[in-house]
Amino acid sequence: MSEDKAQELSPEIRQEIDRQVAALCGGIIDLQTEADLRSKLARSIKNNQPLRVKLGADPTAPDIHLGHAVVLTKLRQFQDLGHRVIFLIGDFTARIGDPSGKKEMRPMLDEAAIAENANTYTKQVFKILNPDQTEIRFNSEWMGELNAAGVVSLASNMTVARMLERDDFEKRYTEGRPIGIHEFLYPLVQGYDSVALEADVEIGGSDQLFNLLVGREIQKNHGQEPQVVMTVPLLEGTDARFENGQIVGAKMSKSLGNYVGIEEAPETQFGKLMSISDPLMWRYYLLLSGKSKSEIDDLQKGVANEEVHPMAVKKALAHDLVSRFHGPDAADRAQQDFETRFSKREIPEDLPEFEIENTVDQGAGLIHVLREAQLVSSGKEARRSCQQGAVRIEGEKISDPNYVLAIGSQVVVQVGRRKMARVTVIAKA
């Protein structure tokens, strides 16, 4: 939007644009571009016309987990601001297979598997999205009718050299691994989807940036205003750890067993969410809760100032997410079940108490805590106890020996049935 046009906007519209940009850009990685987003929002507000926000999903697996929910949560934020979501089922592109991040050529799926998975997707997404503001589309609607001349015309939008700029294609080409010609079609088809849907915004995971940017180029080539591109982080699994000031771990994946499925039982979801480390909890808050960064900052300050216990904040997150997928009553029951099984065990009043200084920037490592609290005789025993499932914090089983207790934590730490201590993590003087 030009400076002259920006000056035509009323203060109220400018304020609303700022509000929406602040809400929508929280937790994202890439934004192409903020100027385009502001321009589209200005037109949307002035004309009372919602933006068309696209997410494409290939039905290559039958279940959706919290890793998928990150981008769905961002879509729900758009809906809460009055915009319309187009959830595109890539039943045509699934036959090609998205090459993003893949080291090998993916096998093409058969139509029966695609149809079955697509049916599951359309049912599960409405656990997060508002159905009244969602349009479900299938890209076979237009791609199935595209003749050979149309495919050739589409392919002319991109050069081989441009395709090989993709990291995954470049690596495979350098290493002599095969790249199918049909794989080059994938980003082109995804980009053409944006033309067919006249998308204002397209959202995807950070590994989708190349594909989304191709959509901008193809829209320009078809005389459309280019879509805004937004990418969100890939969510780490429940077993991710905190090292050297950052979250380290593989992305959430059903095959790795570090996932929380959105259709899993409420008690299972609640228990898995309570098992994540405190630092990872804040990342889940940022990417899944829908809260603004300022709201999350306030929660963190409350924990740091000992106004609220991190366990209570984690329970609130687990309750919010379970409620989103199963309803508030189910979330209440899941929390009660967790507290009955873990948090309400009888704990002696005369437990030994220890103040333990932090070993990393954010807190104290679990191995160090167990040794300092005299619950184990060595680091080796501490690690073995974790691996055997014998270590609990506030009744919660901790199997990750790299778990970090945040500064300010005041918790009961237990090894086995009888060894317990009250531990407070303090900052080094």
Structure write-up:
It is a single chain. About 2% of the residues have low confidence. The longest helix has 17 residues. This protein is α/β, with parallel strands linked by helices and 429 residues long. It folds into 3 domains: 230 residues, HUPs (Rossmann fold); 103 residues, Tyrosyl-Transfer RNA Synthetase (Orthogonal Bundle); 74 residues, Roll (Structural Genomics Hypothetical 15.5 Kd Protein In mrcA-pckA Intergenic Region, Chain A), CATH 3.10.290.10. The protein has a 6-stranded mixed β-sheet, with helices on both faces. A hairpin with a 2-residue loop joins strand 11 and strand 12. The chain contains 19 helices and 15 strands.
Q: What is the CATH third-level topology name of the largest domain? A: Rossmann fold
How much strand? 15-25%
Low-confidence stretches: 98-106
* CATH-assigned homologous superfamily of the largest domain: HUPs
Assembly of the depicted chains = single chain
First and last CA, distance: 52 Å
By CATH, the architecture of the largest domain is named 3-Layer(aba) Sandwich
How many separate structural domains?
Answer: 3
Described by the principal axes of the CA atoms, the overall outline is: elongated
**Average pLDDT value?**
85
Main beta sheet, described? 6 strands, mixed
Would you report the number of β strands?
15
CATH class of the largest domain: Alpha Beta
Q: What order do the strands of the largest sheet run in, or round the barrel if closed?
A: 1-6-5-2-3-4
Radius of gyration: 24 Å
Helical segment tally? 19
Class by SSE composition: alpha/beta
Q: Please bin the fraction of helical residues.
A: 40-55%
